[in-house]
Amino acid sequence: MSDEEVKLPRPVSAATQERRDRKMQSQIKQRRILRRLIFGCYGILIVLIGLGVYDRVFSWDVAEHTEEYFEKEDFLGQHTADPVLYEQIPPVGDPHARIPQACGFYSEYVLNEYAVHSLEHGAVWIAYDPSISGDDLATLQELGTQPYVLVSPYPGMNEPVSVSAWGHQMTLGSVDEGKIDAFRSRYSNNQEYSPEFGAPCGPSFTETTDIEPQQIPFVPAAENSPGLGGIDVVDATATAAASSGETPIASPQATPAP
């Protein structure tokens, strides 16, 4: 064969060409799948990073939205038979009635003095504007079935919903079940915040009233003047262990039977 002769490629059969085409298409498909997996992993990583940043920067923290007024040892076991003028509306503590209001849902007003004793036992009190109705009211009724939860109407509040524990209070512009649950999970029957942790929230006093509760906070005339309208506090000894960090049921002296 001379140098001028050109070597032509051997003809390829149709079957061979078909196999080559299938192999090439398979490789192209595999590369596409690999690229999609890589992009998908990058996307998931970006989302996870974004969620982490959001959780650190923008997440809702119940403690940051809760006002703290006093410690759990303050006013522990201070009982009175007189009406009390409270400095917070709804009240979050201070002297109170000898027996607690039974936890649960109420469609009528409860007496502040009895509700405050429930807070001393570790209850969370959800006070709601009486105009709330429909699905929001149904949600509140459901929340009232949970342990250590007291739910009752309360007129004249600055916001439609107020959620209180002993010494702590959070207000909401609507019935937000998630935020209410966050508050309940943190403060309800919690040894760190409940003066008489483990004491019962019912059955006890279940009476209601048609008299509207106090709506204007009491302001002492002077810093050193008696608080709460200068009422006389009846001698009462709360469970001694309650202030020492133990977790017994309240004694009969702290919580007499109705």
In short, what is this structure?
The chain is an alpha/beta fold. The protein is 29% helix and 9% strand. The longest helix is centred in the first third of the chain and has 44 residues, at 14-57.
Tell me what the structure shows.
The structure is a single chain. With 258 residues, the chain is of the alpha/beta class. The chain is built from 4 helices and 6 strands. It has a 6-stranded mixed β-sheet. The longest helix is centred in the first third of the chain and has 44 residues, at 14-57.
Please supply descriptive tags for the structure shown above:
258 residues, alpha/beta, 6-stranded mixed beta sheet, 6 strands, rod-shaped, disordered C terminus
Radius of gyration: 33 Å
Silhouette: rod-shaped
Structural class: alpha/beta
Span between N and C termini? Answer: 122 Å
The average pLDDT value, as a whole number, equals: 79
Main sheet record: 6 strands, mixed
Q: Could you tell me the number of beta strands?
A: 6
Spatially, the strands of the biggest sheet line up as: 1-6-5-3-4-2
- Succession of helices and strands: HEEHEHEEEH
Distinct helical segment count: 4
Helices and strands in order, then pairings?
Elements lengths: L13 H44 L9 E2 L35 E2 L6 H9 L3 E5 L5 H10 L5 E5 L7 E5 L2 E5 L4 H11 L71
Parallel strand pairs: 2-4, 3-4
Antiparallel strand pairs: 1-6, 3-5, 5-6
